[in-house]
Amino acid sequence: MSAGVRQRTIARPVEIAGTGLHTGARTAARLRPAAPDEGIRFHRADLPDAPAVRAGLDDVVATARGVVLGRGARVATVEHLLSATRGLGVDNLVVEVDGEELPCGDGSAVVFVDALRTAGLVEQDAARRPIVLDAPVWVSSGSSIIVALPAPRLRVTYVATADGVAIAPQIAEYREEVDDYAREVAPARTWGYVAEVDALRAQGLARGASYATALVIGPEGFVNEPRFPNEMARHKILDAIGDLALLGRPLWAHVVAVRAGHTLHVALAAEIARALATTGGAGDGGLR
Ligand SMILES: [Zn+2]
What we know:
- This protein has 288 residues and is of the alpha+beta class.
- The chain has six helices and 19 strands.
- The longest helix has 17 residues.
- The C terminus is likely disordered.
């Protein structure tokens, strides 16, 4: 859990090797400690001079299938690593990537949680500055909505639905103060439809996707065994925590989402950033 007043980074470097979800190519990422207030920063280690890509809202260039960062050099599929950092309470981190995509592990955040735990966490000599809201903030699109309500700590409530198949709507809730992110959220895998995976593959995408890297939904229901009865909704919480980490500071709010996804998560984060700017930084430095 990410409670605590001080910022944290990892104690020592650690490497993660694996496959990129879309390219299907072998790739690796090395996590290194970073100084207080540096936030999360990627470096493309495969390019000359290893250009940096910041994990910030201004650097988001795509949200259609996972989050892509970087206006010059790009890093894709960052959301599960960002979710693990926020879920475990890691504020500052350098991530060197050997290509455009992070390793996808089994489609959940377990590979990143394990790496961060192997590296160990250390407190730093700087205070955390959570964002607190003084009024609700929301965005919607069609039948999808996400709202952030003022609250004393992070809480995420999610309703997820699968379209065109006999799977009932799912609901899940995560409360930062009492729930164990590593056990309750991190193992939930990304999910997708058999038909969608076929279409992505025809476009040369999702080459790394398989039953080993996702919860797959066919016309009759789940093709492989879910890890939780509400794994779809839990993974949506995982994604939302990762996308909201682009705010660069912990968010203390009750986030309620219905049928949302990366695009709306990032739009909500942008709306929160705008609200903070117009209220003169409400909640700035506000530890309560
Ligand atoms: Zn995801």
